[in-house]
Amino acid sequence: MAAADLVPELEGQESPLLGPPDASSRDEGVVETLHHYRSRWRSIRIMYLTMFFSSLGFSIVIMSIWPYLKQVDKTADASFLGWIIAVYSIGQMIASPFFGTWSNYRPRREPLIVSTGISVAANCLYAYVHLPASHNKYYMLVARALVGFGAGNVAVVRSYIAGATSLSERTSAMANTSACQALGFILGPVFQALFTLIGEKGVTWKIIQLQLNMYTAPVLFGAALGIINIVLILVIFREHGVDDVGRPCRSINFQAEENDEVRQDNEGNIDHVAVVSTNIIFFVVLFVFAVFETIATPLSMDMYSWTRKKAVFINGLILGAIGIESVIVFLAVKIISKKTGERALLYGGLVIILIGFFVLLPWGKQLPNIQWEDIKNHSVPFVTFSESFTSFRTLETLSNNSSEATGCPVVQSWCFYTPVIHLGQYITTDILIGLGYPICNVMSYTLYSKILGPKPQGIYMGWLTASGSGARIVGPVFVSQLYTRQGPRWAFGLICGIVVLSLIFLEVVYKRLVSFSVRYGRLLEQIE
Question: Which of 129, 292, 319, 389 could form a disulfide with 189 if both were Cys (CB 3.0 to 4.6 A apart)?
Answer without folding.
Answer: 319
